[in-house]
Amino acid sequence: MSLASKNLLACGLFLAVAQLAQPVTGLELTVSTSGGNKSSPILYGFMFEDINHSGDGGIHSQLLQNNGFQGANPGLTAYAPIGNVSLAVDTENPLSSAITRSLKVTVPPNASGKVGFSNSGYWGIPVNEANYTNSFYIKGDYNGDVTLRLAGASSGSLYASQTISVKSNSSSYTYVETQYPVKQAPDGNNIWELTFDASKVAGKSLNFDLIQLYPPTFHDRPNGLKPEIANVLVDMKGSFLRFPGGNNLEGLTPATRWKWNETIGPLTSRPGRQGNWGYPNTDALGLNEYFLWIQDMGLTAVLGVWDGLTIGGPSPQVITGDALKPYIDDVLNELEYILGDKDTTYGKLRASHGFPDPWPLQYVEIGNEDNLNGGGPSYAERFTAFHDAIKAKYPHLTIISSTDQYLPNPKPKGIWMDWHTYSPAGELVSMFNKFDNVDRAFPYFVGEYACISLDNGTELAQPIMQGSVAEAVFMIGMERNSDVVKMAAYAPLLQQYGGYTWNDHVPNLIMFNNNPNGIVRSTSYYVQQMFSVNRGSTILPVESDGSFGPVYYVASKTSDNKTYYVKFANYGPTPQPVTVNIPKTETGRLTTLSGAATAANTWSSPNAVTPKTSNVSSADGAPGKFTITLPAWSVAVLAVE
Ligand code: AHR
């Protein structure tokens, strides 16, 4: 029997005894300081895929859009001519076999002065006081100055200007890299410009490719993450990273799936792809960059691998039978690249890319949402084929199915199952006890969840307090069952304000733009943070004199038995007094997030709802007794010692 079911039984008995003496002060809880179940140490974490420009134009730090003309039909997106030149996408002068298109800048005869082109970034460029690194490839006969500038798109204010001497020729590309100081801009409405001396190219053309602009990066990694966004994740103290999707793993066709081997090595050898979310992916944030992200944040990797199911493209959407074999081999190669010694074929390749040591990997998920989009009927066959091949070579790996349906019967021992929900608030609350009675032999990974609407059908374009409290209720249900719910992640994680592609009626955890401090931590972000930061290692039995709702709770303690946590959600419009008894504790703190049901953190009011922390002490003469009031629509964590 699960701890949650035992608690319910204990609660029922206690209720029967206590009914006559129902306290007027509200719910009274007594936390047992012993017993209980071990909680998963990696319960809270991150699900990431490039959606809403969360990667390119988001957490990845390269700032210029369409810098390698990748994807299905990039055109001249983000580029504009400067002076009397014409711009075109050129396929005659490939930079490499991967980067096959370039920007051709044609200069008319008798031209003079400075000409060139600009790039408007991803809905602007963040221009902050720092040294930026700028590079590009140039082909064509040129020997003279090139000026690189960052300027306000509307204001024309200049924030950086660097003139360098460039000598290039028409037989091959020349790589140019420079660094320059950048002054602070008041907002993100900025463009980048490259100009050269028109008189030296009059009547001819120059080609440019793989143009890159980097601010300082998280942990100073070349081709790294944007610190502003990465640090918001650090503050959440998540434990794992599921990547690279989500639907963006799947591809519109098998050929356009996320291909691990096209995301590694120098950027010149990464062709990019047309992602599933309607825009090209550069794949500069590739397999090794994901593992560096994991390393730098101390996370556990959850690698999604492609399993034959595509989404959104032409039929057939599913590959089965013998036709799957090359894709299974491809996954084994990927795993050898990640886990193999440097004397293996792919381990050697990884070492040649600068990573001699294998990456730590324990969890591999087979596909994404194979219960949907026609994947169900063949999933047992496909799952078994990938599972068996991976386990034969890497028996220590934990294999996660992408659904708890359509699995082989019996299920292979040791597998975990991914389960997703995007639900209205009330439905999420009603799933509080979803995991109370599931088979403990097959753990769950709740790989994606969010409250996306209210019960009357109102869709939420961003998290609001009522939805965030509903998520907290669901999370309390998961934490009470975290002997079997091993990991859980809100999704989607990030949204570039200009590049909303998921669905403009669906919320995201963290929104950002290019302005200084242009980040909005949603009410749901703060719920995730409060739950993640305050984690015990054992979930404790709790006796209660009332039933769940509108107040929901879960108690835990740390492994040193010193700190006790009680997490609460008040899913209702009325404040709720609660008395909590935790023997042998005296003092601590109470962190509360609350607001009107519709309260939200927005661009105009990013800090409308933030957690507030106060010190608490047990009542005089009643050690271990804490009396608190949960405001209407609130989430709270009591942490006492
Ligand atoms: O999180 C957005 C999408 O929702 C994911 O890519 C997919 O797995 C789910 O359907």
UniProtKB/TrEMBL annotation:
SUPFAM superfamilies per the record? (Trans)glycosidases (SSF51445), Glycosyl hydrolase domain (SSF51011)
SMART domains recorded: Alpha-L-AF_C (SM00813)
Looking at its record, which EC class is this enzyme?
hydrolase
Do the record's keywords include Ion transport?
no
- Report keywords, A-Z: Glycoprotein, Glycosidase, Hydrolase, Signal
Q: Name a GO molecular-function annotation.
A: alpha-L-arabinofuranosidase activity
Give the EC number(s) under which this enzyme is classified: 3.2.1.55
The protein here is known as: non-reducing end alpha-L-arabinofuranosidase
